[in-house]
Design a protein that fits this description.
With 248 residues, the chain is an alpha/beta fold. 44% of the residues lie in helices and 12% in strands. The chain has a seven-stranded parallel β-sheet, sandwiched between helices.
């Protein structure tokens, strides 16, 4: 499998799953625009690790704002001339139940998790050739029967993402020849995932999988790389639940 010559936009690409995807696709021959929000050092260290400006460029932008999304897209086109794969990976989890929801926190999570991805795709599509890919990011939480009340807003935003996947696969497949899919990870061992959790809690979460552990960012990146390449040309409109049997 080779991604040689393909140009990626990955928001939230300097850490966690986004970083693993960046490293995987560059290793397969792609060039990447890495969007970050606040951690400039992490983003530029990643660019250096990847081999410099010929392979990747880092751009600071708030992926929840349309004007900032336009900046990401224009950077990709100016630097690399096209966009082959768009992965709106930036997102946030807000744990708030109905009683405590405010208009401010509702707007914040929907702007980053829903509005930003939609408009990133809209602004990117005019620069994408036939055979391009859109890869959204959801979560296994959308299918949990035992979902807890504080997941209210987060689960709702990711449900919207899954509907974007289904509808845009019909739209962009017919009009542009672009495949649209979504990865929906279960628990993944990123720095953010481990933060603030006791070993007892981590063991409990890991043991929910028949493999007795959580996933790794690299395992999610492998699925994204597949969905980005020619081997997935007949895959579109699908939500890939990458969770090691944790959420079935």
């Amino acid at each position: 499998m080779s991604l040689t010559g393909k140009v990626f936009i990955i928001t939230g690409g300097s850490k966690g799953i986004g970083k693993a995807v960046v490293k995987k696709v560059v290793a397969e021959g792609a060039r990447v625009v890495i969007n970050y929000n606040s951690d400039k050092q992490a983003a530029y260290e990643l660019v250096t690790e990847l081999g410099g400006a010929d392979k990747a460029v880092a751009i600071q932008a708030d992926a929840s704002k349309i004007s900032e999304v336009e900046k990401i897209v224009s950077t990709a086109v100016e630097r690399f001339g096209k966009i082959d794969v768009v992965m709106p990976n930036a997102g946030m989890m807000s744990m708030i139940d109905l009683e405590h929801v405010t208009e401010a926190n509702f707007d914040k999570i929907f702007e980053l998790n829903v509005k930003g991805p939609l408009f990133l795709v809209q602004k990117s599509v005019p620069h994408m050739p036939r055979g391009g890919r859109v890869i959204f990011v959801s979560t296994g939480v959308t299918t949990l029967t035992s979902i807890m009340p504080p997941y209210l807003l987060y689960a709702a935003t990711k449900a919207a993402i899954e509907q974007f996947t289904r509808v845009l696969a019909k739209d962009l497949g017919k009009t542009k020849g672009i495949n649209v899919n979504c990865v929906a990870p279960g628990p993944v061992g990123t720095d953010l995932f481990y933060e603030g959790k006791s070993q007892q809690l981590l063991d409990m979460i890991g043991n929910q999988s028949p493999f007795g552990r959580v996933g790794t960012p690299e395992e999610i990146a492998g699925v994204v790389a597949f969905l980005s390449g020619d081997e997935s040309s007949w895959v579109s409109g699908q939500v890939w639940r990458v969770n090691g049997g944790n959420m079935v």
